[in-house]
Structure formats: structure tokens, C-alpha cells
């Protein structure tokens, strides 16, 4: 491997972490350069994360996750392992697809990037994924979750290493199936952000419920815009519809705002609110204060208190030691992205052969902080989507992760293999696109 | 590895001293002429096995010979030298392979005219030397090598003895430790050096696990080549199978590299390492090995040696000489030298007389003698192979101090196949006749 020629010890160090305060140009100020220098790098990874606005927490935590990954790789190098020297450059696409594409193009042109990583917004991710396909740059998605990226729009150069909307909704559908046996709920409503991620999440949930044979009545689907400041009309509509269960794909600050506003009404007295993909994020736990609303059903792509494994405890501690706070799931996703790229380079023997790198990523197994005992995540060769277990639960008092006084508990655990989309499902959705349709329409219950 | 060089600096300085002692001996008169008991000491003084095995062993031989020649040992070993004759040690390097060692052995016997040979870490070297010892009729003690084939392949051995235990004991003991401390374990994995030592160790371990841990399954096994040095691919392969226990018979630099790399790559966060030779690096792991890692000493040696007068004395002189605690290879070398002294002083010859190889062998065969590790019974291999118990425990490092926790010992008859029974057969039959406390 070419990288054998480089001295490894000490090369994987964080060399620059420059914040906006010190630069005149805003775009340059948002840029982070981490890991190996340009001269010593075996590979350059260009990452896009939000640093401002409601989703800035995701970007900030992702950068910390990347730093932890680089620290771990540095420790591996010091222990004698031949790991690649990675240089990571991160910038803020400001949730705008056109700007993200320009930044990504600059990663290729100016920084000689071999990989893309990151991206919170599925809409932005679609645009950058198209660029990755055209420019033959491997893109490792670490946060965005629209299942359309890996199913309908999947291509050789696109991979994703956190649970997608299908995985989360497949777990959610199983939770709702089991809940129905206990409570007999019938009336289901959905509220999600009015862009790709929200709509595909609703489709995924309906398809998953249909596959399980769950009978229910849809009493509404509502589409506030992303970063909507006022959810009162949506909350009123959901209450008027008398939904037993409301599933939401609102995320981050939007989800917190929705909960806060719903809590000022009698919403939680009559309705259970479920968020299977992002709802158990640590920022939500903090925002809830000491209010464990009984109706909340939550999960996320990584939890600080599940699974109870050494690997998860270590990751959470590393993050806390580095930042003085506890991570949102975005951190673990970004960490996974960098580790996945490093392992793929090792497996492929370098970065010169795209096909070897793609082959290395297809089927790549990784033991990750979010993996329960006895299971390791792996990338499905067919969809390039990582296959992971998921835990869904309710809110309980837990002050192990201050300042939050609540965490999710009462876990229901769903096996990773059960949460994979079936081959038939993948084929049907891909065939629908090939036939001119955007996606398979959800079944009518 | 860069880190290991600095770790072993103390050992290596001592190793040079041991070699200097050998040079002096080589230039002196033969045993027959000067009245001294000349003993050849063979262990690794160079290469990857030198740091954790050879140099501590050579250091143990050096300090013990010096103290024996002064008559400073506790009873029953307080007689000067060996049977009153001053000991002259010829210490040579085991590096170079079996063919070279056979040549060196012949040189020791025929040109250096040693009265006995103690040596060999490598099982390959032991197997090569055993028939030559018979051919040259030279009293020889294998002090460390672990192959069960030593006496299985040489059932009529007259001059070859082993005062350490074989690898079957290591692995049966390891499984008994798991059964005693982690009876609910279900996922086992292993990484072994790809030669007979690793393959035989893994075969014994997995067979014993089938008998004593019936709920456990082997989820992964890896066999990298010896001295490979980098185990990234193997560690990743083990990690993704999410084992609870990772067994390894790695030794020397390979073992230390494995621990460092497995720790760095996260394998040992949820899986517990079980190293049958792990105690050899007790003094050097520090915080680079995880707390709770299970280590063995291939018997009641090193950190697992008993608190008896002989061991307390030995630890004291070793510590004074080298500013380090003796690890198990040092204890085993001391045991072999004491075995030789016991044989010479019970051979029925006059004071200061040097017994013949036949007299030494007759005294040693089936003997029971006291050692730094407690009582040694030459109760297997037709009286040529020692039988002792074995202890395993967990490595812990806190506030700059390494210690063993949760140590559990098993009697010799609990972990040793009966005379004439192969380990594989004994395990397959369910350990008939095993006596466990």
C-alpha cells in the first residue's frame, strides 16, 4: 500500500481548527481542516455540515465526532497498525443545495478530495450525490436519512453509514404494531417537514406498516415547511382529527419547537407522539427539561444510554472529555463515516482504484458504538445503506447525562436484519423510477 | 515497535551482562579440568522473544548462579554451587532456528563440555534437541517450551526432562478459569500464530470449551503468521463478530503488539482478552492493556508463584539486581536450575563430585522437589515431565501499579491428562480422573 511509505506516528494530528472570529471571509471562516496536512495525507475527505441555524448542533457535533475518529486512528497508528493518514476538510453548505454543490466541487478542484462525507439535509445530499456520481467521488453519508438516496437514487459512488428513514420507520412500524396489540389504537396521523426527507419518511412508514399487515386509519398528513417557527395550526389540526397516534419526521429544533408548543395545549392528554428517526436525540432530551411527556415514543440513530457496551460508553466518554457535553447522534454518524473510509482504504490497499474502494465498502463490517452485543453493522452491497439494529422507547428520568434529566428507556429492540428493506421492495421502488415515477406510492390502508 | 524498545531497555542491558558472563566461561578450562559444574543455558538473547522471554530468563540464570555460588539460597538449596562445586554458566542465544540450535547444542556438549544443558523457549528447538540429547547422552532440561509432543514423540527419553508444563495444561486451565468465573459466556474467538504452537493451543482450548462451556460457540478464529507484527485485518475480523472472549497463545513481541493494537482498535472494550502467555509482559503493559484482561503464566510462575520462602528470596534478589519483578520465564528458569541442583545433590555422589548424566537422570526421574513455584512432581512423561497446577487472573493497572485480581488456581491433576493419555483424548472423554479442588 502506498501509505506504508509514510511515517504514521504523529501524522494524524489535528492541525487546524479555525473559527469564524478570526477570518474576514465568512465562507473561509466556516471551513475546518482536520487531520493530516495536505502533503502527508493519503486521502482527503471533503465534508459538508451545517454550522449555523437550527441544525448547527448537528454540524458542531459531527466535527467533534470526526475529531474522535482521527484521534482513534492516530492511536491505532501509534500502536503499530498501518492506517491511512486522513485529511478532513469541512464546510457549511447553509442548507442550500446549489451552494453545497459548489463547495463540493471546490473540494475536488482545490483540495484534491477523494471522498465526500456528511450532509444533514436530504435535499442537499441529493444534489451532492448527483455530483459524486458524475465526478466519480465516493460519498459517505453520515446524517441525512431519506431512503430515496440509497433506493431510488442509489449509485456506485453513494454510501450511507447511519440509519435511514426506511430503517427507522421499519422499527417504528413494529413498535406501532405491538402497541396496537396493547392499546388498540386505530387513528394515525403524520406531520413532517415539507421536503424529501419528510415525504419519504411517511411513505416508508406506510409501506412498513403494510408489510406487517397493521390495520389503521390515516386521519391526516401535514407538511409544515422546514424551520417552521409556529406549529399551532398543525397541532390544532391534529387534535381536531382525533389521532390516536401522531408520527412525526420533524427533527432537531423543529421537533423541539413542536413538542414545546404541543405541550402548551392538551395534545399529550389524548395523543401519542412518535418520532422514530431523530426524536431521541440528546438535544431533545435536554430541551424536555424534567417533563417526561407520557405520550412520547422516541428513537434515534444513536443513543448515549443504549446499548450498554464498552464501545458505546467509550465513545460517549471521549465526546464528553473533548467537549464537556454529551453528543447528539450526528457525532456518532460522522465518527462512523471517517472510520468506514479508513477501513475501506485499508481493505482496498490504497485510494488509487475506485472499484476496489467501492468493493471494500460494499459489505464492509464495522463494530460501532450503536451496535448491541453480538452484532456488528455492515453496509448492504445492494443499497449501500448500512444495516443496523434499532431501539425504540419512551421517556424516563435519567440524570446520568447532565444537564438532561431525561433519557429514553423501556427499550424495544429490533434486529437489524428485520429492518432491511426486502429485495422486492427495493426492486419495486427502483423499477418505479425507471418507469418514470418518482417512487412507489404508499399503499392505501 | 518503537514503544517496546524503550520498555525493554532494562532487560537488554541485563542481557548484555549475561552474554559477557558466557564469554568468560567459554574461554576457561573444561569441566573435567577445573572441577566446576558447567551448565549450558540456552534462551533467546536476540529477536522478538528476547525481551519478554529470553532476557528475563538469562537474567534469572545469572543472578541465581551468582547466589548459588555464594551459598546464599534458603534450604534445601543452601549448599554452595551444585553439590558443592562452583557453577560455571555458558549462556548462548537461542535465535537462529532448530538446525542452528542442534549445532549449538553439539558445540556446548562436545567443545564446551558442559555437564548439563538447560534451555529452549521454542517448541521447535525442544523437539529438535530431544533426540540429540539422547544421542549425546547429555542431561538436558527444557525449561519453557510447551509442545505436548516433547515426550509423546520421545517416549523412551532417558536424558531429556521438562520442569515446565505443556500447552495442553495452559488451555485446559484457561477454559476451567472461564468456567469458574464466566460460566455464561457464549461467544468465543481466537487469534493464534500460524504454526504448531498456535494451532495446538487453539485445538486444546476449543475442545476443552466444548466440554466445559457447552453453551459457548466459536464465532471467529484467525491464524496470522508468526512475527507478522501488524494485526489490523485480524482485529477487525474479530471485532465485527463481537466475541465476549478472545483467546490467544501469542507470545513475545507478537503478543505485545496484539494487545496494543487490539486495545487501540477497540476489540478489547467488550471482548475480554485471554492470553495464555500474557504474564510474560506483566511489567511492561502498564495502561496499554485493559483492566480485566485475563493472563496466564503457563503454570504457577511469575505473578502467580506462591508466597513461599524460596520464591520470596528469588523475587528479592531478582528485584535487587534488575529493578523489576521476575516474570514467568524468569521463574521457570530458576525452577529448572533448582531441579538440576536437586538432581545433582540427590544423585548419591560425594560432596563436590559432579554426577554423570545417568546419575542426574536417575535422580530426576519421578522426583519431587521444592521450587520457587512450590512443589514440583516429575509425575508425567514417564517421570520426565513436571506436573503442577496452573493459575489465571485478571490484569489491573491503577495509579501506576499493576496487579492481579480474581486469580483462580487449579491443581495439577485437574488440568493434566493422566500418564500416557493424550490431551485430546482426555478432553474428548470428559476429563476422566480429573481431581479439581
Tell me what you see in this structure.
The complex is a heterodimer of chains A (445) and B (437). With 445 residues, chain A is α/β, with parallel strands linked by helices. Chain A contains 14 helices and 16 strands. Chain A has a seven-stranded mixed sheet. A six-stranded mixed sheet of chain A has the order 1-3-2-4-5-6, sandwiched between helices. A three-stranded antiparallel sheet of chain A has the order 12-13-14, with helices on one face. In chain A, helix 4 (122-135) links the parallel strand 4 (115-118) and strand 5. In chain A, helix 2 packs across helix 12. Chain A is globular and about 60 Å long. The model of chain A is unreliable at 1-29 (pLDDT under 50). By secondary structure, chain B is of the alpha/beta class. In chain B, 44% of the residues lie in helices and 18% in strands. Chain B has 18 helices and 15 strands. In chain B, strands 7-6-8-9-10-14-15 form a seven-stranded mixed sheet, with helices on both faces. The longest helix of chain B is centred in the first third of the chain and has 21 residues, at 50-70. Chain B starts with a helix and ends in a 9-residue tail after the last helix. Mean pLDDT of chain B is 91; it is low at 1-32. Classes of the chains: A alpha/beta (445), B alpha/beta (437). Chains A and B meet through helix 2, helix 11, helix 12 and strand 12 of A and helix 10, helix 11 and helix 12 of B.
Q: How many DSSP E strands of chain B?
A: 15
Low-confidence stretches of chain B: 1-32
Strand content of chain A: 15-25%
What is the helix content of chain B?
40-55%
| Largest pleated sheet of chain B | 7 strands, mixed
The global form of chain B is globular
Please give the most extensive interface between any two protein chains, plus how many residues each contributes. Answer: A-B, 26 and 26 residues
Shape of chain A: globular
Largest sheet of chain A: 7 strands, mixed
| Number of helices, counting only DSSP H or I runs of 4 residues or more of chain A | 14
Q: Which structural class matches the secondary elements of chain A?
A: alpha/beta
